[in-house]
Amino acid sequence: MIRIGTRESQLAVWQAEKVKELLGGQGYKSELVYIKSDGDTDLKTPLYELGVQGIFTRALDIALLEGEIDIAVHSMKDVPTIIAKGVTTAAVLPRASHKDILVPKPGDSFSDDGRHMVIATSSIRRKAQWLNRYPNSQVENLRGNVNTRLRKVADSNWNGAIFAAAGLERIGLRPVNAIDLDWMLPAPAQGAILAVCRENDARCLEACAHFNDDDTSLCTGVERDFLRALLGGCSTPISALARVASGRLIFHGNILSKDGLQKIAIEKEALLADAMNIGHEAASELLANGGQQILDSIQNER
Question: Fewer CB near the terminus (10 Å): N or C of the chain?
Answer without folding.
Answer: C
